[in-house]
Amino acid sequence: MITFDAVTKRYPDGTVAVDRLDLEAPTGEITVLVGPSGCGKTTSLRMINRMIDASEGRILLDGTPVQGIDPPTLRRGIGYVIQQAGLFPHRKIVDNIATVPYLLGWDKKKARARAMELLERVGLDPALAGRYPFQLSGGQQQRVGVARALAADPPVLLMDEPFSAVDPIVRTSLQDELLRLQSELNKTIVFVTHDIDEAIKLGDRVAVLRVGGKLAQIAAPKTLLSEPADDFVREFLGHDRGIRRLQFIPTDGLRLRTDLADLTGAADEPWRLVVEDGRPAGWVSRERPDELEPYGTFVYGRDSMRTALDAALLSPSGCAVAVDEQGKVVGVATRETLDQALAEAADG
Ligand SMILES: Nc1ncnc2c1ncn2[C@@H]1O[C@H](COP(=O)(O)OP(=O)(O)OP(=O)(O)O)[C@@H](O)[C@H]1O
């Protein structure tokens, strides 16, 4: 656990970047620091590994003040990932990843074997090991940055806007990859971002900071969205806070119809889903039975109501197609069913 105990950072020019910050980042969880530009996120993060020293207050790592640990020792137990990966341009990928093991005096063979293992772990082709950073895409470089931070298996990972410099599609896959890795590794992660969607997706807990380095609220994402502490937090969460809340509402309680999906014999309805080899092929209407119309799917029980609703909006029938993990149709959520679930969500 990382604990901020009344931590203040005053820069020499008098700027108060962080103001009496109290915060806990529990072991094995992702704690996200989010807030507008200049609110002290990076300063807070860097005080954990003493790249910046606090002016007042204490930061504790499992109860031990970091101020009492010499920086090299401290950093051995703390991986650090930054925007644009910060790789050494003249070192091959494998050697970039093995940076910390080399510093720790591991023999070259063991360090490289560990680097190769990590390369695969972060979803990269081992064939990239011999390349130089400039021969990789931005997203691949970020993955290497994550692999490098994990190389000596540190219990703590600090991540400073690690995915901000890549396009939205790559960012989404990096976020998914981080969540997958974390489900295996259970690191204590402190993650800085200015993107509220990223914070809500990744954080077990999200700390919202306001300019001046004051904590506005810390809560689980779901609570943050349903109970923002004040107008600043409400505004920061954006006008589509209600829509975002839907991503925490599960779909496993939705009642599905199977008679609209050729599964149990088609009902006499305006729309019918054509299923081929168990998979959706398209909707057909009574008026135009030969024309396949578009459809949207959600994975029943895994995806949230937000995805289910999106799936319904993509279908002219207004119904969302529920599939299993293999993409096979399990039924259809009609507009009435979705309406009912939304009404219940609004109550809760
Ligand atoms: N070395 C420094 N000297 C003086 N002021 C600084 C220094 N570093 C940062 N600051 C100021 O401290 C405040 C917090 O900066 P910090 O970089 O921690 O914010 P941030 O929330 O990470 O911002 P961003 O999202 O823009 O990166 C800002 O007002 C910044 O200008």
Automatic annotation (TrEMBL):
Family matches, as Gene3D superfamilies: P-loop containing nucleotide triphosphate hydrolases
Domain ABC transporter: from-to ranges: 2-237
GO molecular function: ATP binding
SMART domains registered for this protein in UniProt: AAA (SM00382)
Claim: Endoplasmic reticulum is one of the keywords in the record: no
PROSITE patterns reported for this sequence: ABC_TRANSPORTER_1, ABC_TRANSPORTER_2
Keywords in alphabetical order: ATP-binding, Nucleotide-binding, Transport
Keyword ATP-binding: yes
Similarity comment: Belongs to the ABC transporter superfamily.
PANTHER family referenced in this protein's UniProt entry, alphabetically: OSMOPROTECTANT IMPORT ATP-BINDING PROTEIN OSMV
Name under which the protein is recorded: Osmoprotectant transport system ATP-binding protein
Organism: Nonomuraea angiospora
